[in-house]
Q: What sequence folds into this?
């Protein structure tokens, strides 16, 4: 410990309480450099706290516990209630607040609310410890009116462009700070190998490598190198671990994942994000192998905090500690649940309706059921993050210091991301792009004229399905097509809703027959978490029927998909000449889609998951080899609608000259892989070069293939470039049945592809 820090300690230890202490911490903050220093500072504050104050720091409540009216109110203003503030912030010492009511406040209102809370604490509490305010800013600062709404994470993953992930993180952090929000409940690092799960859209998809690269890049944008920078925020990785692959596909339901798979596929993205500086982690609300995520001492304390070295704190998900008693039955009652969770390693409870958790902690310590050392460890971690985040210096911000909030510049960044996410799944006879000068369009379908169908959930409200919060001036797909093709060349009829009746063929045909092309915009009603549970992965029948009826008009049919997960469209596929998958592309998604349709943008998105063909055949690309392909016995093997990594372009890209720097390599050596790629088509475009390895024989059944690298290049028409990848022995490793990473010698294939059906192959030996 250096002398300056020692002096600082003495200084604030003698100062003790209130503003004087606050000033000394602020001063200390400007001097401190390393995490160790922050922890010393946290320790010195910790020593001043009573048990009640510590328990309060471990408690997170929803904002509407502090406002007038009931918790679930529908008011369009948020008025803080001084009695509730006193009870929760002063008497119960609550240290963390999160989220909001049921409408999106503007950034000035956010500043007012958060400043009032922080000021209340400064004026009335003994130690003046600011609250850490948590927010689900999962595709931009989505709970602030007027913020930039980006594509959801799954669309970001479909860009296969880490630069765009950095930019999305940067803008999100900027607009969160502009709203006085500094702790983001994201990125979502749940690997999803379950197409039925309603939250796939919040993830980076099914592949560990893609997930890790995009997650780390997003984090870099969000946090930078210094989270106290007033343009950066702290992240909260979620939901550790295995949440994204529930057996039934239902949210918050049991997952069965052997530990070696858990380590190889699911833990790895968290590991890399923690190495990149992530300081907080939210837990899995479900169970893995029968053990609830919030009670799992092994995963939380030994793996997450121990092996992965998480320095900050672990927060529960919504109400999930009390659910250890009410749902999972590993505790007798809410107080016992608090004991189980805290002893497993949970540091903060998202209660979120009251401060009962804090009371339970006090009693548990007094009864000797939770040692004070565990409470101290939790609070030390929380204070460390509060210090490191700069909360003692800036507990709120003046929105006027963020002039780029909701700007055209940011909208352009969102547009670029949406444009690169759009994935062209099918383009028979090159029906796309359409000539915007000469083509007339008839467009129908439930997602054709809705901004909510572009933004999806977590957009202004939780479900995102309320059009009264639509942002003025943003274009639906219909608006954007009219803009590109001319008002008179685009006609529209919804034809059917997400579910329900379909208009008769006669009515539809009246309009459709006058157009050159029919566009049908389909998809899911926005929803997340439990409301997103489904029993059937097929798109609702009425939507399939709409396509069938419109196809009878005898015009080319283009299907646009706006949905959170890969809803099965097997029956629709044969009627469609072109199919475009746009995920939930955000506020600029309508323009991006219309620009792809008109050919102003050459699509370059690639599927971040396997798109299934049948509900009872939900595979991921990595395990396809394990299913027998034997037509004699009617075994289809791996036969998805489209495989992971698929995505077409309006131009052609040819791979050639695949070379390996050596045929044999061993531990501590590198293998350099080079390939040429040429744009042989008639227009410029971006393409993703994907690098996979396939181990031919291993001691446990190896992955069919495994992504170990990707690069996105831009090539003018006729242009050629060379791309280089370097891999080492870790890229060949897998986790064996003893849960250890191992690399086994043998023959490996190298597969370089732009799509599953456009690839070059070679092989090497590993000794
Ligand atoms: C979700 C989390 C979210 C939290 C706070 C929970 O229900 O599962 O992802 O961060 O609520 O809104």
A:
């Amino acid at each position: 410990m250096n002398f300056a820090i020692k002096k600082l300690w003495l200084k604030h230890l003698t100062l003790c309480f209130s503003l004087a202490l606050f000033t000394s911490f602020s001063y200390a903050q400007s001097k401190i450099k390393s995490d160790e220093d922050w922890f010393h500072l946290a320790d010195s504050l910790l020593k001043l706290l009573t048990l009640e104050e510590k328990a309060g720091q471990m408690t997170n409540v929803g904002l509407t516990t502090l406002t007038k009216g009931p918790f679930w109110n529908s008011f369009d203003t948020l008025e803080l209630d001084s009695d509730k503030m006193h009870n929760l912030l002063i008497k119960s010492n609550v240290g963390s607040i999160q989220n909001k009511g049921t409408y999106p406040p503007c950034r000035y209102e956010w500043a007012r609310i958060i400043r009032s809370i922080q000021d209340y604490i400064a004026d009335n509490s003994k130690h003046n410890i600011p609250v850490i305010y948590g927010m689900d800013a999962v595709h931009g600062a989505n709970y602030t009116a007027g913020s930039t709404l980006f594509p959801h994470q799954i669309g970001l993953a479909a860009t296969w462009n880490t630069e765009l992930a950095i930019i999305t993180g940067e803008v999100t952090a900027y607009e969160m700070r502009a709203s006085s929000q500094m702790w983001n409940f994201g990125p979502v690092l749940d690997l999803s190998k379950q197409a039925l799960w309603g939250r796939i859209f919040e993830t980076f998809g099914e592949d560990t490598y893609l997930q890790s690269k995009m997650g780390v890049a997003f984090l870099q944008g969000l946090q930078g190198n210094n989270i106290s920078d007033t343009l950066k925020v702290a992240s909260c990785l979620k939901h550790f671990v295995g949440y994204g692959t529930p057996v039934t596909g239902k949210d918050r339901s049991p997952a069965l994942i052997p530990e070696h798979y858990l380590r190889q596929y699911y833990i790895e993205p968290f590991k890399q994000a923690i190495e990149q500086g992530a300081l907080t982690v939210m837990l899995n609300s479900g169970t893995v192998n029968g053990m609830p995520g919030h009670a799992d001492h092994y995963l939380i304390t030994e793996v997450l905090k121990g092996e992965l070295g998480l320095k900050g704190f672990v927060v529960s998900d919504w109400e999930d500690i009390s659910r250890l008693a009410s749902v999972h039955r590993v505790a007798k009652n809410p107080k016992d649940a608090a004991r189980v969770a805290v002893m497993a390693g949970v540091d903060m409870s998202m209660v979120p309706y009251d401060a009962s958790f804090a009371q339970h902690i006090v009693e548990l310590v007094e009864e000797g059921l939770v040692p004070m050392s565990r409470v101290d460890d939790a609070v030390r971690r929380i204070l460390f993050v509060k210090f490191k985040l700069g909360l003692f210096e800036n507990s709120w911000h003046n929105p006027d210091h963020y002039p780029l909030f909701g700007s055209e510049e940011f909208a352009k960044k969102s547009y670029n991301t949406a444009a690169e996410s759009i994935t062209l799944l099918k383009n028979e006879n090159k029906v796309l792009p359409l000539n915007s000068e000469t083509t007339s369009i008839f467009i129908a379908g439930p997602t054709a004229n809705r901004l909510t169908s572009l933004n999806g959930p977590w957009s202004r409200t939780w479900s995102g399905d309320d059009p009264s919060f639509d942002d003025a001036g943003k274009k639906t797909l219909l608006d954007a097509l009219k803009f590109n093709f001319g008002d008179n060349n685009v006609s529209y009829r919804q034809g059917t809703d997400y579910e329900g009746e379909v208009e008769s063929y006669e009515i539809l045909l009246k309009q459709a027959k006058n157009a050159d092309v029919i566009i049908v915009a389909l998809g899911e009603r926005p929803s997340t978490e439990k409301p997103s549970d489904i029993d059937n992965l097929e798109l609702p029948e009425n939507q399939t029927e709409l396509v069938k009826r419109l196809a009878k008009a005898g015009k080319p049919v283009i299907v646009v998909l706006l949905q959170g997960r890969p809803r099965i469209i097997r029956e629709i596929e044969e009627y469609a000449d072109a199919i475009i998958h746009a995920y939930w592309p955000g506020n600029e998604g309508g323009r991006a889609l219309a620009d792809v349709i008109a050919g102003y943008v050459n699509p370059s998105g690639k599927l971040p998951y396997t798109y299934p063909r049948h509900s009872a055949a939900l595979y991921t690309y990595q395990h396809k080899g394990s299913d027998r392909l034997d037509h004699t016995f009617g075994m289809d093997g791996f036969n998805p609608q489209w495989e992971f990594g698929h995505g077409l372009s309006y131009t052609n890209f040819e791979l050639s000259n695949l070379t390996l720097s050596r045929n044999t390599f061993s531990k501590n050596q590198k293998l350099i892989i080079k390939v040429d790629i040429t744009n042989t088509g008639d227009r410029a475009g971006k393409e993703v070069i994907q690098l996979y390895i396939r181990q031919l024989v291993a001691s446990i059944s190896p992955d069919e293939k495994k992504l170990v690298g990707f690069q996105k290049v831009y090539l003018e028409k006729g242009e050629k470039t060379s791309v280089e990848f370097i891999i080492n022995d870790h890229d060949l490793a897998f986790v064996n049945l003893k849960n250890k990473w191992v690399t086994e010698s043998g023959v490996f294939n190298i597969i370089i592809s732009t799509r599953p059906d456009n690839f070059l192959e070679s092989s090497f030996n590993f000794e």
In short: The first helix runs from residue 3 to 15.
